[in-house]
């Protein structure tokens, strides 16, 4: 079993599509890495594998090794900077072209999920985050059955459930929480994503999708709200173009000043400069980094408590 040396496995779940599971997975992985942990990300969203694009490694190819597949490195460990290694595996690396459709029936999806869980050579690793498709379908059932059968209770730490604030989203995500209850997967907490919009041209953070739906749902189920995450266009620009996030004076996110541009900078076009650095280094300047640091701290605490109570 390729997961033998993985200390903690965390599932990223949601009953609703389009709530930003892959974005949450990506930022949680970067935050864990910045906290010094070695991290793996397994993308089992077979019909919409977006993790390779999120990490800017779409052109990478999987290497076959004796006993299985080697995950794709995003960056190596840097002990002097306190950064842990980050590796990724996704069906997206195995498709001939980015736009190729995966038209598979349930049994083939189930077999692929099980192969990912058994044939990827992760080695020693602190955290493995598993990004899942929306819903409670074949992939989820196969995933949970295999993990419950082939891992220890200490390894399967639990799930982070992602929602957006609207009632139409939380109604579907509640089904995911019921799925976890029925399958015996512990819920570490809820992330309310898209809770506000950080304007790239001013200091305003506007709640365009309302707010508080995630907290209300978490309260109803007696689970923890890990945090609320606004939409930040600068994060998307960083992912798509490789530019380091830069913010106008007065930009406040969750009460923290994220300003990096002066009036002179905005008029001189300094924000157009590309930065060739690693994604994990650029992410430090993103307004969402402190938000996810807090979420990551909550997840680590919940995982440690889960291991103690197992």
Automatic annotation (TrEMBL):
<keyword id="KW-0004">4Fe-4S</keyword>
<dbReference type="GO" id="GO:0005524">
    <property type="term" value="F:ATP binding"/>
</dbReference>
<dbReference type="InterPro" id="IPR028600">
    <property type="entry name" value="NUBP2/Cfd1_eukaryotes"/>
</dbReference>
<dbReference type="GO" id="GO:0046872">
    <property type="term" value="F:metal ion binding"/>
</dbReference>
<keyword id="KW-0547">Nucleotide-binding</keyword>
<keyword id="KW-0479">Metal-binding</keyword>
<feature type="binding site">
    <location>
        <position position="199"/>
    </location>
    <ligand>
        <name>[4Fe-4S] cluster</name>
    </ligand>
</feature>
<comment type="function">
    <text>Component of the cytosolic iron-sulfur (Fe/S) protein assembly (CIA) machinery. Required for maturation of extramitochondrial Fe-S proteins. The NBP35-CFD1 heterotetramer forms a Fe-S scaffold complex, mediating the de novo assembly of an Fe-S cluster and its transfer to target apoproteins.</text>
</comment>
<dbReference type="InterPro" id="IPR027417">
    <property type="entry name" value="P-loop_NTPase"/>
</dbReference>
<dbReference type="GO" id="GO:0051539">
    <property type="term" value="F:4 iron, 4 sulfur cluster binding"/>
</dbReference>
<dbReference type="InterPro" id="IPR019591">
    <property type="entry name" value="Mrp/NBP35_ATP-bd"/>
</dbReference>
<feature type="binding site">
    <location>
        <begin position="15"/>
        <end position="22"/>
    </location>
    <ligand>
        <name>ATP</name>
    </ligand>
</feature>
<protein>
    <submittedName>
        <fullName>Cytosolic Fe-S cluster assembly factor cfd1</fullName>
    </submittedName>
</protein>
<keyword id="KW-0067">ATP-binding</keyword>
<dbReference type="GO" id="GO:0005829">
    <property type="term" value="C:cytosol"/>
</dbReference>
<keyword id="KW-0411">Iron-sulfur</keyword>
<feature type="binding site">
    <location>
        <position position="202"/>
    </location>
    <ligand>
        <name>[4Fe-4S] cluster</name>
    </ligand>
</feature>
<comment type="similarity">
    <text>Belongs to the Mrp/NBP35 ATP-binding proteins family. NUBP2/CFD1 subfamily.</text>
</comment>
<dbReference type="Pfam" id="PF10609">
    <property type="entry name" value="ParA"/>
</dbReference>
<dbReference type="GO" id="GO:0140663">
    <property type="term" value="F:ATP-dependent FeS chaperone activity"/>
</dbReference>
<dbReference type="GO" id="GO:0016226">
    <property type="term" value="P:iron-sulfur cluster assembly"/>
</dbReference>
<keyword id="KW-0963">Cytoplasm</keyword>
<dbReference type="InterPro" id="IPR000808">
    <property type="entry name" value="Mrp-like_CS"/>
</dbReference>
<keyword id="KW-0408">Iron</keyword>
<dbReference type="InterPro" id="IPR033756">
    <property type="entry name" value="YlxH/NBP35"/>
</dbReference>
């Amino acid at each position: 079993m390729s997961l033998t040396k993985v200390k903690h496995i965390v599932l990223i779940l949601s009953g609703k599509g389009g709530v930003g599971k892959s974005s949450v997975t990506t930022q949680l992985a970067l935050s864990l890495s910045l906290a010094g942990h070695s991290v793996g990300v397994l993308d089992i969203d077979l019909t919409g594998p977006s993790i390779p694009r999120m990490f800017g490694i779409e052109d990478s190819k999987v290497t076959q090794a004796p006993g299985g597949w080697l995950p794709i490195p995003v960056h190596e460990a840097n002990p002097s900077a306190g950064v842990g290694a980050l590796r990724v595996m996704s069906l997206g690396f195995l498709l001939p072209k980015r736009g190729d459709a995966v038209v598979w029936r349930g049994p083939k999806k189930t077999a692929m999920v099980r192969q990912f869980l058994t044939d990827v050579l992760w080695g020693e690793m602190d955290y493995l985050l598993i990004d899942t498709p929306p819903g409670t379908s074949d992939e989820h059932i196969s995933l949970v059955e295999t993990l419950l059968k082939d891992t220890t209770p200490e390894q399967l730490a639990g799930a982070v459930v992602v929602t957006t604030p609207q009632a139409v989203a939380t109604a579907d995500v509640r089904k995911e929480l019921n799925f976890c209850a029925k399958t015996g997967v512990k819920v570490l907490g809820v992330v309310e994503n898209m809770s506000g919009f950080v304007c790239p041209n001013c200091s305003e953070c506007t709640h365009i999708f309302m707010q508080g739906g995630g907290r209300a749902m978490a309260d109803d189920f007696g689970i923890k709200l890990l945090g609320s995450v606004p939409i930040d266009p600068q994060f998307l620009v960083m992912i798509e173009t490789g530019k380091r996030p830069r913010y106008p004076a007065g930009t406040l996110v969750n009460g923290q000043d994220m300003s990096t541009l002066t009036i002179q900078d905005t008029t001189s076009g300094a924000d157009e400069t590309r930065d060739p650095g690693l994604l994990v280094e650029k992410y430090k300047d993103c307004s969402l980094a402190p938000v996810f640091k807090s979420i990551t701290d909550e997840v680590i605490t919940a995982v440690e408590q889960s291991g103690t109570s197992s």
